[in-house]
Amino acid sequence: MAITRGFTGRGRATRDPRLPPGQYDAKDDWPVLNAEATPRIGTDRWTFTIEGLVDRPRSWTWDEIHALPGSRYSGDIHCVTTWSKLGMTFDGVSVDTLLDAVGVQPEAKFVMATAHTGYTTNLPLEDVTGGKAWVVWQADGRPLTVEHGGPARLLVPHLYFWKSAKWASGLRVMAEDEQGFWERNGYHDRGDPWLEQRYQGD
Ligand SMILES: Nc1nc2c(c(=O)[nH]1)N[C@H]1C(S)=C(S)[C@@H](COP(=O)(O)O)O[C@H]1N2
Ligand SMILES: [Mo]
């Protein structure tokens, strides 16, 4: 039986049950976190490429990815530095739609998400399939600003936000796990905020 979370007694302020352990609600603030300088990638130059263990590797241009059926995420995001934002809306395309187009091979178990800047982050294939990951270009109904990864970023909201590569350039589909930028620098390989998988060993 489920235990009711966050209710601490009559008349007391309750912790929002959408907040994972150790997180706070950033409310109207949306912090910007970058390891690299903010790049300016025009939509005329932006592409998203899926390669590796797929039957038909391919790239989508800005116009081509917009021609695919759209998909929306409405929900929360959680940064490992402890801020969360609740009830956001992102619009783009489901990663399922992109992977269906290329045909994932049976040995595939992981992906490396890449960015036009060289940033990388690794994910189990099952964390980017089944309606859990998107390539998005709108946040709360407006074009994604360049600080937040525009023209388009990856969105994997059920994991800590470092998995959501800004200025997304593609996915490399792999049989074995390989570490990305923050994972090599001590962050967890999976990063589930409900399990507080912040660092290697958590
Ligand atoms: N390309 C790139 N993507 C990135 C990062 C980065 O440094 N470079 N930082 C990650 C981290 S640690 C977080 S918390 C989020 C921050 O996204 P935001 O700046 O839109 O809040 O982007 C993630 N994606
Ligand atoms: Mo982060």
TrEMBL record:
Recorded superkingdom: Bacteria
Q: Which parts of this chain are annotated as the region Disordered?
A: 1-24
Under InterPro entries, the record lists:
OxRdtase_Mopterin-bd_dom, OxRdtase_Mopterin-bd_sf
**What is this protein's name?**
Molybdopterin-binding protein
Cleavable signal peptide: none
Under SUPFAM superfamilies, the record lists: Oxidoreductase molybdopterin-binding domain
Name all Oxidoreductase molybdopterin-binding domain ranges.
37-182
Q: Which Pfam families match?
A: Oxidored_molyb
Q: Where is the composition biased (Low complexity)?
A: 1-11
